[in-house]
Amino acid sequence: MSPTQDSPLLPSAEKIAPSRRQVLQYYFQLTRLHKWPLGNVLIIWPCLWAIQMVGYSNGLPVQSLARETLVFSLGSTLLHSAACVINDICDRDFDAQVERTKTRPLVTGAVSLRGAWFLLFLLVSSTLYLLSFANSTAILCGLFGVFPLHALYPLMKRWTWWPQAWLGLAMNWGFPTAWLYLSPDISSLNAVYVIFPGLVCWTIVYDTIYSCQDRKDDVKAGIKSTGVLFGDWVRAILALFSTAFVACLVAAGFVNQQGLYYFIVSCAGTALHLTWQLTTWDVDSARDCGAKFKVSSRYQ
pTM value? Predict the structure, then answer.
């Protein structure tokens, strides 16, 4: 018997149980926190934009804005991790058919399904605990973000060609929640009504770019996405969504009576960034799709 063959005296690699540290690393990967701030920032930014805009219009003190920024950053991170866990639970069969995702912990068996459900329970419980300190209006708004928005997103790629639109609702629901947390009067939501459709458009842009790296595998697996739906027209269609996003930013700035700095940095800066992103994007390169998605997290 050669040294490389399994022997009753020498356990095979498959029989060696992972160490506690390795198990914890697998659970950590399940939350995507090992990629922080990628992904997390995209759910944090809408909250911070709302905090900044309410703070500007209501003249809130810097100390208060800093405190709420910390709280919503933590809550958004927990919610994003919970969303990643439930996404992996629901998509484990799909993930096994996609090159980029076939090594995820639930697919390989490194994490058990029961363990993933328990982790999801801890993350959602922690998120709801933080939310419980808000006023009743913000709590109701935040709960709607948890369920149905985040909870049902993994199923959308089975039901509709527009899962990115539903994701836009979920990822940006922190904007109205943070707004109501600081200004619970429903009559103060005029700027929210204007900017929120634009935020959904923004998510459609960056997540369609993200989905394009898996288009070939998605078609084979029967996974629906705007990246597949838009086909050869994907760049032109995303240019329209980008234009709508910038238009909503400008309109919300007027409604909220923002200063010149907002229009130069937030509006003009976003327009320039999206123009560069779409004109330099190589649609057929999975690597460039991933790179352009990462830029969305860093720039915004």
Answer: 0.91
